[in-house]
What we know:
2 domains, Universal stress protein, two-stranded antiparallel ribbon, Rossmann fold, UspA, alpha/beta, Universal_stress_UspA
Amino acid sequence: MARRGRAIEEGSMPKDIVVRLDGSQDDETLLAHAEPIASQFGASILALQVNILPELQGMGYPVSAGLVQDIVEEARAEARTLRDTLKRRLDRLSVPAEHRLIELYSPAAGRVVSSEARAADLYIAPIHHPDAPDAAELAETVLFNAGRACLFVPRTTPQGQYRTILVGWNDSRESTRALAEAMPFLTRAENVVLCTASEHSSEAERREPAADIARHLARYGVNVEVRNLDGWADAGAALLNEAGRSGAQLIVSGAYGHSRFRQWVLGGVTRTLLNEAPVPVLVAH
């Protein structure tokens, strides 16, 4: 029987992890998840502090050069204070960590952070929250532009090593990419549940490619079980339900979306996972 899709190459162990720290409550969440991963794989953490300078042009009324300079300098002074706080926090980590302060104006933030993430193996961001829309927008920009896997983590205490991992599989390029990026975690997991869930394809259409990729993972020593999730109108909800039933500590999925006016609009499954997942979600585009 002919194999479908490309073979999944075993991902190398992550050695560089990027997080963006901004002084919010999410900083501790990100470090709490990044530190054990870095420890497990012998990786280093790069903590980005992005100081977005105020833009005063186009405000509808004249602003003197002196006032502009005062406002910008105040923003820089606040950034330096936060920098010192973040450096002290990084010094307490048990793994190597570097702090990097970047100053820019808002339109450049996504491009610059994406560039930083390309020089790493993994970008860790918080699961989307209504109280942090700017952070969500930046993380989505990195997800769709950096070419690296992104790990979105909830505001909960990490559960340790990812012993049970749920993989959402639909025989797409995005699913293949996510699996390749997740291989360091999959090969160390005790159980991997590979799920197919689609509103548009039958179980028979999903069974063959799922069996093929499960066979491929098994050749790497992955203990994998295939489950076809039927009867769900929402594939994202189906994956979250199965993750709960399986006791999964990590969800792996391709990231889907489309570009609209230079911004990415998340696909339905990706939106559900990044807004509602109670456990970390590793996604790749």
